[in-house]
């Protein structure tokens, strides 16, 4: 018996969300009095380093070709079977969302998605998932022999690494019977923290009036090391790339801090951002719906408030 974490990579490097999965697996394993192990596919990062997050053994899979969710899922399932893992932890990233249901079918295991908290009980294993676009929660008691837990990226956070090295062993990918998947193009935002992994996000909407005004948003984001996001109309109008669109039809994010500037706070926007741990809203209209979801609100003109905020952050950083 063990708990298996799937360690997702991008261009061979471990994704931040994978450390979260490793630490979550280690926590569940400890609660269940067993060990946490991991499987990693096509990694160039050193799998032994996962020992710092509580993993005792890593199954390293090489030569698996381009990403194919069936190959990935069948390989993870094969490792779980060989190691008699009772639980598999997978981050709910774009790739993880494609893999987890297939692993669940291959293992005849129950699947709980959108988890943002550690289990509240182990007998039976009880986990809380967020529901209705993060407006509610559901507590699930897992009663099947095997379970898959899919975590909201950046929901629980990555603990500080400790001393530890994992044992590494090779494992062959399961390529048979997988439908062919061809990746035609990968359009990757470079030089910025991907929005699902970002801890700080500065976002702006139609209140900014024009694409040429985004320098104040970028300056504010740069002053605190935040990623930038935007509302749907902003990306629809081509003021910002679609990769920045957050909300119900865009990316769902979960940062520690979300600063929303000139965004009304329509329900479809809130659906993707309301899981943010702290929300700051800057808007000229004191009746803007976003203020109801805000932890802190500034009623004011973005063109006056934002440069002052940037200046204050820069001053604070220089003095501390
Ligand atoms: C099916 C469907 C799916 C959708 N999905 C999404 C989605 O995923 N994400 C999303 O964002 N939207 C989505 N929408 C659109 C959503 O309903 C809203 O229309 C949109 O979020 C509004 O964008 P906004 O707040 O930028 O613009 P507006 O609603 O025009 O709001 C602009 C805000 O800026 C304020 N403002 C104006 N000037 C200033 C200033 N100088 N300083 C400060 N504040 C100022 C105004 O008071 C106002 O509150 C969806 C809609 C539908 C129907």
Would you give an account of this structure?
By secondary structure, the protein is an alpha/beta fold. It folds into two domains: 2-171, 3-Layer(aba) Sandwich (Rossmann fold), CATH 3.40.50; 195-319, TPP-binding domain (Rossmann fold). The chain is 28% helix and 27% strand. It contains eight helices and 17 strands. It has helices at 16-31, 69-82, 94-107, 215-224, 232-236, 267-273, 290-293, 302-319, and strands at 2-7, 9-10, 13-14, 35-41, 57-61, 85-91, 110-115, 121-122, 125-131, 136-142, 147-151, 167-171, 200-204, 227-230, 257-261, 278-283, 296-299. The chain has a seven-stranded parallel beta sheet with strand order 7-11-6-1-4-5-12, sandwiched between helices. A five-stranded parallel beta sheet has the order 14-13-15-16-17. α4 (215-224) links the parallel β13 and β14. The longest helix has 18 residues, at 302-319. The chain is elongated, with a radius of gyration of 21 Å. The relative contact order is 0.12. Bound molecules: flavin-adenine dinucleotide (FAD).
CATH class of the largest domain: Alpha Beta
Low-pLDDT segments, ≥5 res: none
Helix tally?
Answer: 8
Q: Which term fits the overall shape?
A: elongated
The SS-based structural class is alpha/beta
Strand-residue fraction?
25-35%
Helices and strands in order:
Layout: E1 2-7, E2 9-10, E3 13-14, H1 16-31, E4 35-41, E5 57-61, H2 69-82, E6 85-91, H3 94-107, E7 110-115, E8 121-122, E9 125-131, E10 136-142, E11 147-151, E12 167-171, E13 200-204, H4 215-224, E14 227-230, H5 232-236, E15 257-261, H6 267-273, E16 278-283, H7 290-293, E17 296-299, H8 302-319
Parallel strand pairs: 1-4, 1-6, 4-5, 5-12, 6-11, 7-11, 13-14, 13-15, 15-16, 16-17
Antiparallel strand pairs: 2-3, 8-9, 9-10
The protein binds flavin-adenine dinucleotide (FAD).
Flavin-adenine dinucleotide binds next to α5, α6, β16 and α8.
